[in-house]
Every structure is written in structure tokens, then in C-alpha cells.
Amino acid sequence: MNKADDSQPGRPFHISGGINMHKIKYYIASFRLRTLPLSLSGILLGGLLAKANGSFALLPFVLAITTTLCLQILSNLANELGDLQKGTDNSDRLGPIRSIQSGALSLHEFKRTIALFIILSAISGIALIYTAFDHLWERDGIIMLLLGAAAIVAAIKYTVGKGAYGYHGLGDLFVFLFFGLLSVCGSYFVIAHQLRWELFLPAASIGLLSTGVLNLNNMRDIENDRHSGKRTIPVKIGLQKAKYYQVGLITGAVICMCLYTLTQFHTLKHFLFLLVLPLFVLHLKKVAKDQGRELDSQLKVLSLSTLLFALLSGLAQVLFTAPL
């Protein structure tokens, strides 16, 4: 590369052999930063519940957050690649124009970024398990390594490949399992080194709300998904039933958290998370009357409401529960 070329007017600055600095905004757009608060909800809740139980370790908690963020970005990148390859990302799609679809990033650049986040997810996950347990190869370490590997595979296979489960209506199940059960229970386990059966209630709560975000996304894109052969739950059951399904997901999440709170009950202050209930009600009212592109703004609303719900649920346990 001729160094003189880098200084020519009108040419975007770039690092030799590295990332073109002019394209950073397109990489960031593909990271889909608005999805990150949702991915943090389960980790934060799991960490706060461990703290309430008298166990907390800062480094595993921070590494759990780092690993989750890497996995979420990996999932977003793989989703964009898979939808492009299957023709789902087209001019009829109602979501934001994506970086490969617009030509801002090449397929080679995009695949290289996916590979980078596979590596980052693996490194962060291994560091988490190494820090949390005495040895990587003890039973608990091996279990968590396998679950971490499954999370990487699930992040990629949502839309990539012939067996992409997101195209067969299984995305909801996987979001519930990984964003809910694994996120909350897994983060609790690597911090507290134990697992209690009642933790599956708050884990299910976050899983249901996370599934609600996916269902909202799929309701927005229902027509384009139907024409592209992407058999999401809304495509299978229709828009109106998908809206009832949304009510069920959010109602179920609140019920699960209430049931968990009753198992830990000492004071009404434990129900601090119910302060988020009006946000959920307003969200459902908006979903009931809107469709298509009008639903897009509710993705941020539900994601941030879920994060607030998780924080208030966890903080109430930390502040008002005596450690066991």
C-alpha cells in the first residue's frame, strides 16, 4: 500500500491491514446497540440475586457481562448475514437498512467480523469459567464450557445455514432458554457456585420478556417474513394471535417474578419491580393498535423496560432480603 495514497483528499482514513475508519459506523450499526440492554438484563438480575444470597464476586460478574455482550453482537451479526443469504433482507423489510444489504460493508469484511466475535466470545467465556472455578476441567467448569459453546452455536444458527432454527419458528424457544434460563441461572451459578430451584422463576420471567422482544420484531416483519419463507411464530399463527401471545408473554413474566418474590417475602418493598407495570401496560396498548413499521419504536421500549424490571427486581432482593 502506498502511504501517499492515505493522505490524498477525499480518501477515507484507514489503518493499513485493519479496519477502514470510515466504515466504523456501519460496523456499529450492525452490532445493533439497542439490543444490548436486553442482553444485560439476565446477567444483572443473576448477579444481584447472588448478592442478595450473600455471594458476590466482581470479576466473574464483569466477565459474564463481557461474554454476554460479545454473544449478543455475534448473534446480531450472524442474523444479518443469514437473512441476507436467504433473501429476507430486501427492500420490503421494515427494519433498519443493514450494512451488507446497503453495500456499506462487503461480505468478506462481515464474515471476518463474525469470526472475530466468535473468538472474543470464546476467550471471554473461558476467562469467566477459569476465574469462577478452581479448574476449567472440573465438573462445573466442563458443564459451563459446554453451555458456552452451545450459546455460540445458537447465536450463529438462528438464521445461518440450512437448518436455521429461526426460520422454523424455534427462535422463541431458544431466546427463552439462552436469554432467560441460562443468562440468569448461569450468572448466578458462576458467582454463587450453587443453584436453587426457585431461581428458575425470575429466569423464566426474563426469558418471557426477551421472547416478547423477538415476537415484537417478528410482528413488525410478518409480511416480509411470510413472503421470504421465514416461518416465525407470528407468520404461523397470524398477527392478531401474535398480539395475544405478546400479552401472555408479558403477563407470564410478571406472574413468575411475583411467585419468586413470594418465596423470598419479607416486606412489600420486595415488589419494587411492579413500578414497571405501567410501562408494560402502555406497551401492550400500543401493540394492540399498531402494526408494521409502527411497532419498531416499541422494541426499544420493551428492551429498556425489561432492563429496568430486572434491576428493580434484583435491587429489591439485595436491599430487603437477609442473606441465607
Q: Which terms would index this structure?
A:
disordered N terminus, 324 residues, mainly alpha, globular, 69% helix, 14 helices
Walkthrough of the structure:
There is one protein chain. The chain has one domain (22-320). The chain is an all-alpha fold. It contains 14 helices and no strands. The chain has helices spanning 3-6, 24-31, 36-52, 58-85, 99-102, 107-132, 139-157, 171-192, 200-220, 222-228, 233-237, 239-263, 277-289, 297-320. Helix 3 (36-52) runs parallel beside helix 8.
Outline of this structure?
This protein is mainly alpha-helical and 324 residues long. It is 69% helix and 0% strand.
From the N-terminal CA to the C-terminal CA, the straight-line distance is 64 Å
Task: Tell me the strand percentage band.
Answer: under 5%
Q: How many E strands? A: 0
Q: What is the tally of helical segments?
A: 14
- Which outline best applies? globular
Q: Name the average pLDDT.
A: 87
What fraction, in percent, of the residue positions are helical?
Answer: 55-70%
Order of helices and strands: HHHHHHHHHHHHHH
**What is the C-alpha radius of gyration, as a whole number of Å?**
21 Å
Unreliable segments of 5+ consecutive residues: 1-18
Instruction: Tell me the count of domains.
Output: 1
Structural class: mainly alpha
How does the major sheet shape up? none
